[in-house]
Structure of 4'-phosphopantetheinyl transferase domain-containing protein:
Amino acid sequence: MILGIGVDVLHVPRLQRLVRLRPERFLTRILTKVEQSEFRQQLREMELTTGQAEAAVTSPPPVKTVVPKAIESDASIRYLATRWALKEATYKALYPRHKLVWQDVTVYKKDGKPGLLIHGQENLGIASSHASVSHDGEYVFAQVVLESR
């Protein structure tokens, strides 16, 4: 049985403004620890590819050391926009029965499709989740369907 359906539309320039204002705060507020680690790895790979990397880094740098220029790359913004939209759609699928926070949802990729790991999903009555995201120009569209047992 369907527990909830959530949809979100994100205007990417709005997200870019938020990231530009306070990148460290944005990343630690919106992304889970797993997503932050994945994002930092992506940034390091981009820096190595573009020749902007410093000496070899053996451990992930703190978010504060992330180069704003790298954060504003198309790939980085796409990563952040996808997570923002999917988390918003997940929140809307459960609202008002349950109120999630950003850190309650981890977005991952499986077989080329987005997947959701929702903290405490068993207690929320969620048996399965289905997520879809589309990018078109300056917009990201996300839809989440949550099923109960």
